[in-house]
Design a protein that fits this description.
This protein has three helices and no strands. The chain is mostly helical.
Length: about 170
Amino acid sequence: MILASSILEPNLGLIFWAVVIFAILYFVLTKFAWKPIMDALHEREQSIDDALSLAAKTRQEMTDLKAGNEKLIAEARAERDRVLKEAKEAADAMIAQAKADAQKAGAEEIEKARNAFNQEKINAVASLRKETAKLSIEIAEKVLRNQLADPKAQESLVSSLLADAKLN
């Protein structure tokens, strides 16, 4: 037990050699190990900072790309809507033009039919008048033949015609 208590008791020589060994160890560590360790730590810290800044830059680029994509999508939708609107307007204009053309063509056909009907009516009336005149002449001829067959009727007709001629 004496030996164990002597190691635990502070002894001036033991303290001196502990301090000397610590100083030598500190000097050796400072000279050979401390600088490379610190350089490695600084290098590691720099690489972490670089990685963090790269991550932030990448995140910003992703945000910018996402905003750009959304803008492109919005522009594409606007372009699609504009094209659809123009197509609808063109279709409506074509339909309106087709209706106008159809109405014009219909009106022209109606006018042609009306003119043809009027012409047929005029032709029918003229034909009817011609037939009526022809029938009237035939009837008058038959009546006159019957009346002129008798000589007394002929004299009476001539007398009445001469009397009418003198009065006029």
